[in-house]
Automatic annotation (TrEMBL):
One of its GO terms (molecular function) is ATP binding. This is non-specific serine/threonine protein kinase. ATP binds at K68. Residues 37-393 form the Protein kinase domain. Transmembrane segments: none annotated. One of its GO terms (biological process) is mitotic DNA damage checkpoint signaling.
Length: 395
């Protein structure tokens, strides 16, 4: 017992030391920050940035701000685009605004309004129907504005949609992965390229789980693929250049078209992520999928929707997915109810012992919206604008 307590103290001391070093590094990197703000502690960290809570010195500590320090290796174009997104979109419809941008040499800090928020794990298991409705409406309102400007957020997830449960305030943050897309350009490009991918060819047995390079095959002077539909990869395909398609996003929230490396991605990938958040809420799960890689993620999606539906989705994208067995899809409402029951636990808070209510029963309209958000086909997936007039969000 004493050993466990000692280890806990050591980890806490190391954490405090890392936090102190992070604050010191921020002040050294951009000296003017120290003149304007009192930096208190780190409130968040991502792959490309760290976020700190600070108060404006001239306000006697009353005005709070979130200072986002980007890592020095961030590409200037990436920084510029994130800055433009916040300037263009921020401050309205639950989207984070930008107060100030500070730069010193290669170090850049975005100064944004700070909003107190709760952790997703603290409320996901006991959200009421009304609360879920308000939450999803706010998220889709923010995305409607983003998508109207032909921008894809690309990293929609609970930690990027802040929620202050006490005052019912919401904020969509982190446009570090955001991209512009041109709808007219997509319309002109797609059909010819997809048809080229989808050419039918005679194939051999597909029901073998092993998929390996065919190093033992005889050398063939033909440039035609020798492995189509087989559980192996021929040398011709191995020599092909890698298919380029954005994979940006967070595991567990990536849409099927992202996992299948479809190059012509649209704002529909944000809608899929919305669906995954709603699936977490309706099932009372902190994280529904925990996929370590894209293949596992696709397999997890298949367990919900079934192998035939995933194969149909892949075919529409000019891709082919082979399964070792045929998996049937599940009824999403029944699945959510089972998981909700399993995840119903008692947990302690500082003020009281709180039990997850057993009587939260979502109407059929909620599950209908969920299925439309999680449509495997990005072309028929509901848009943010359409979702906002859905019966569940307007009842």
């Amino acid at each position: 017992m004493e050993s466990k307590v000692w280890n806990l103290h050591v980890r806490q001391a190391e954490s405090d030391n890392d936090e102190k070093n992070s604050c010191t590094n921020l002040l050294k990197s951009i000296p003017i920050v120290n003149k304007l703000f009192d930096v208190h502690y780190k409130v968040g960290k991502g792959a490309f940035s760290s976020v700190f809570l600070a108060t404006l010195k001239s306000s006697n500590g009353h005005r709070k701000f979130a200072l986002k320090q980007l890592i020095p290796t961030c590409h200037p174009d990436r920084i510029k685009h994130e800055l433009q997104c916040m300037q263009q979109l921020g401050g309205k419809d639950h989207i984070v605004g930008l107060e100030l941008c500070l730069r010193h040499h290669s170090s850049v800090v975005f100064v944004m309004p700070y909003m107190r928020h709760d952790k997703f794990s603290e409320y996901v298991q006991d959200m009421t129907v009304e609360e879920t409705r308000d939450y999803m409406k706010a998220l889709l309102t923010a995305l409607q504005r983003v998508h109207k400007h032909n921008i894809i957020h690309r990293d929609v997830k609970p930690s990027n949609f802040l929620y202050d449960r006490k005052y019912r305030r919401y904020l969509l943050v982190d446009f570090g992965l955001a991209q512009e897309y041109q709808t007219e350009k997509l319309k002109k490009i797609n059909e010819a390229s997809i048809k080229a991918f989808g050419t039918k060819r005679k194939r051999s047995n597909e029901n073998n789980v092993s998929l390996q390079p065919d190093f033992n095959a005889r050398k063939n002077t033909s440039s035609k693929c020798q492995c189509f539909g087989k559980p192996k990869v021929c040398m011709i395909c191995l020599r092909e250049p890698e298919q380029l398609a954005s994979r940006a996003g967070t595991p567990g929230f990536r849409a099927p078209e992202v996992l299948l490396k479809y190059p012509l991605q649209t704002s529909a990938i944000d809608i899929w992520a919305c669906g995954m958040i709603m699936l977490c809420i309706l099932s009372g799960s902190q994280q529904f999928f925990r996929s370590p890689n894209d293949c596992t993620a696709l397999a997890e999606i298949t367990t919900i929707f079934g192998s035939k539906e995933v194969q149909k989705c892949a075919q529409k994208l000019g891709r082919k997915v082979i399964f070792s067995e045929n998996l049937l899809g599940q009824n999403i409402k029944s699945l959510c109810l089972k998981l909700k029951q399993r995840n119903k636990v008692t947990y302690d808070t500082e003020s009281n012992i709180h039990k997850v209510p057993a009587d939260i029963e979502y109407p059929k309209e909620a599950y209908n919206l969920l299925t439309k958000l999680l449509d495997l086909d990005y072309k028929t997936r509901i848009t943010a604008e359409q979702a906002l007039v859905h019966p569940f969000l307007n009842s």
